[in-house]
Specification:
The chain has 649 residues and is an alpha/beta fold. The protein has four domains: 72 residues, no CATH class; 113 residues, Alpha-Beta Plaits (2-Layer Sandwich); 107 residues, no CATH class; 258 residues, no CATH class. The longest helix is centred in the N-terminal third of the chain and has 20 residues. The structure holds iron/sulfur cluster (2 copies).
């Protein structure tokens, strides 16, 4: 949000955003001048900043992030949505807020205020620890007192959202006996047996019963291999879910969370279900190993570990990490399946196969049904090829040449991850050739392994070992001047995400992470510095549609790939508004997940690609995404680096 808050000057007590609209620019300017004059004359603000075009969206994003901040308070005190959307007429708002603040002071509360001042509605929430009985009492008292205050101003206790159980018992007081009786009659007419949504609006349940936590309980202590201390442990990470249901949003409403729910439309396959099922079992399990529950296995089964929830859920519930930890702990009690073990160790098999690529590819092609059957791979899924010996030799000669480059603009370390190294070595060749020709000193790491396959199958001890080895190896090499770049998002972004939670020395891991880039991110920075320019590339036209990797969307953003592809003067790029491609590493290979994997691809990605004209070039930076696009649409997608290398003059 640093970029989004750049319009803020000083340290304001509050920010009031006013939006102006008009049918023509002259009218808009007149309105703007009038507003500025009024603001200056009022003497109420010390800065009046005017934002236009994209900057407006940035400011709105900052505003939206407010909800995330509320949901992300670390620890047991949380913003309680008991009085979240009271509304009064705009002319009463200032007095109402003053009285509200005094009320909160009386309760020793520093409430949080944001949004919709123009409609007389502010989101207000006290911060309470509902694990403690005295604060549960406060929940009732505060809601009751605020309801009385809102009534005094003839406002609404639920100006925007529903009443729910939390506010239903105050409805009678708010609207009076006579009106309430009308509500009861309407309910009885349409739902005489009170089947629908019981306990809300009429015949309400008490607001402070059936709460999520048993008050004054003893907190369970759960040991994990991932370090969840940023959330005070795995249980509190799961407890971050506030039930808002944003993870049930369908594709037409934008965003990418949650692909499994979008495919099945079953609550069991939402982010919410996963977080809450885990919370429930970790809190109340009677098993020695609280993760050892078949129900948890089922609820996590269709999670694609896409990480969309880590960035799109307002509470940033990181279910991909929860799933890895669950798998790890579950395996302790039940062991891993043959298929899980195979995919976790895929690098080992690929490494071996790459010694005899011809023979391996022959076996993969001709004996594929045997291989697929044995390892639980769906019969319709194609298998990735092993890069040929000729290609291996070609890349080795590029590596040697790159080391000899004496006109060095900058030294960079290129990480040839396990996916590129064994299955798509041509992209490595493109990256080395591109940087060498652009005058960089490219040093190539050809033996390191990211551990992504271990992480996605819950083999966390193996992943931890790799993380520690890699950090030890890189800590004195990687710096601001000598950054680490990676081609495959799911591999390189492990250094910035999971390694911090796995490494024995998180500060060393963070230091490496600070100078680790997705290859497009680095090129984007170099473009901004003027070290790479459009003049170095073709002027021929090209139309490109780009699909970004889920982990890029969650942990970085797609603009870097967009900038790279847009660099040649006459290249026109559109980003496909797709979520997860559905492949998600091994997920789309697995017999039991293939159909769902294809359904996820059909949500947005496949139709967008099929619709593209014949000469449109499809680009995707994830190895799984390119594989899925090929299997789902028959089209070959290129990595942005390949496209940029081919565009070199
Ligand atoms: S997991 Fe879903 S319901 Fe829970 S906070 Fe996130 S978006 Fe809301
Ligand atoms: S990681 Fe992806 S699939 Fe799993 S819960 Fe989060 S959004 Fe859904």
């Amino acid at each position: 949000q640093q970029e989004n808050r750049s319009f803020i000057q000083g340290d304001p007590e509050a920010i009031l955003m006013c939006e102006l609209r008009a049918n023509d620019i002259t009218d808009l300017h007149t309105q703007k001048e009038e507003l500025l004059k009024t603001l200056v004359e009022s003497g109420l603000s010390y800065a009046n900043v005017v934002l236009e075009a994209l900057d407006v969206s940035k400011a709105n994003e900052l505003r939206s992030a407010g909800l995330g901040l509320l949901g992300n308070i670390v620890g047991d005190k949380k913003s309680a949505a008991c009085i979240e959307d009271t509304a009064v007429t705009v002319k009463d708002l200032a007095n109402y807020i003053q009285e509200f603040s005094n009320l909160m002071k009386g309760y020793n509360q520093k409430a949080i205020y944001y949004a919709h001042a123009g409609a007389g509605e502010l989101h207000l929430r006290p911060v309470l620890n509902l694990k403690k009985s005295e604060e549960v009492q406060l929940l009732r008292q505060i809601t009751h007192d605020v309801a009385l205050l809102v009534k005094k101003y003839r406002g609404s206790l639920s100006g925007e959202h529903g009443d729910g159980i939390v506010r239903s018992e105050f409805i009678k007081m708010m609207i009076g006996e006579a009106n309430y009786r009308i509500l009861e009659k309407i309910k009885s007419a349409f739902d005489p047996h009170h089947i629908f949504n019981p306990g809300k609006i009429v015949n309400p349940l008490p607001m402070d019963q059936s709460l999520r936590y048993e008050a004054d309980r003893e907190e369970p202590v759960i040991k994990t291999l991932f370090d969840f201390s940023h959330s005070q442990g795995i249980l509190r990470e799961a407890e971050k879910c506030n039930g808002s249901g944003d993870c049930r949003k369908l594709p037409e409403f934008g965003g990418t969370m949650c692909p499994s729910y979008r495919a099945t439309r079953n609550e069991k396959d939402t982010t919410r279900a996963r977080a809450n099922a885990l919370r429930e079992f970790l809190t109340n399990s009677t098993q020695e190993n609280p993760f050892d529950h078949q129900e948890l296995k089922e609820v996590f089964d269709l999670c694609l570990s896409c990480k969309a929830c880590a960035s799109e859920c307002p509470s940033s519930v990181d279910v991909a990490s929860l799933k890895s930890e669950f798998q790890y702990q579950y395996h302790k009690a039940n062991g891993a399946s043959k298929s899980e073990s195979f995919f976790a160790h895929a690098t080992k098999y690929n490494k071996f196969a790459s010694k005899f690529p011809k023979l391996s590819n022959f076996v993969l092609e001709n004996g594929s049904s045997v291989v697929k059957n044995y390892y639980g791979i769906h019969s319709k899924r194609s298998l990735p090829k092993i890069s040929s010996k000729t290609l291996q030799k070609h890349v080795q000669s590029l590596v040697k040449q790159a080391g000899k480059n004496s006109n060095k603009l900058k030294k960079i370390y290129l990480f040839l991850d396990e996916f590129i190294r064994y299955n798509e070595l041509e992209i490595a060749g493109d990256a080395i050739e591109l940087f060498t020709k652009l005058n960089y000193d490219v040093q190539v790491f050809q033996t390191l392994e990211s551990g992504r396959s271990f992480i996605s199958k819950g083999f966390l001890e193996e992943a931890k070992q790799l993380a520690n080895d890699n950090i030890n190896y890189l800590k004195d090499k990687i710096s601001e001047e000598t950054p680490l770049l990676g081609i495959e998002p799911s591999a390189i972004l492990t250094f910035r995400d999971e390694y911090i939670k796995l490494a024995n020395n998180p500060s060393e891991a963070q230091n490496v992470a600070n100078h680790t880039y997705l290859i497009e991110e680095f090129i984007q920075k170099e473009i901004q510095l003027g070290n790479i320019t459009p003049g170095q590339f073709t002027k021929a036209p090209m139309t490109i549609k780009f699909h970004g990797h889920c982990h890029q969307k969650a942990l970085s953003n797609q603009l870097s790939s967009f900038s790279v592809l847009n660099l040649p003067e006459n290249y026109t790029v559109t980003i496909i508004p797709s979520g997860c491609c559905g492949m998600a590493g091994s997920f789309g290979f697995e017999k039991e997940h293939y159909e769902i994997s294809m359904q996820v691809g059909e949500q947005t990605l496949f139709p967008a690609i099929r619709k593209a004209h014949e000469e449109v070039v499809i680009s995707a930076n994830g190895t799984s995404c390119r594989h899925q696009i090929k299997d789902g649409t028959g089209k070959v997608a290129k990595h942005p680096i390949t496209i940029l290398k081919d565009a070199l003059l």
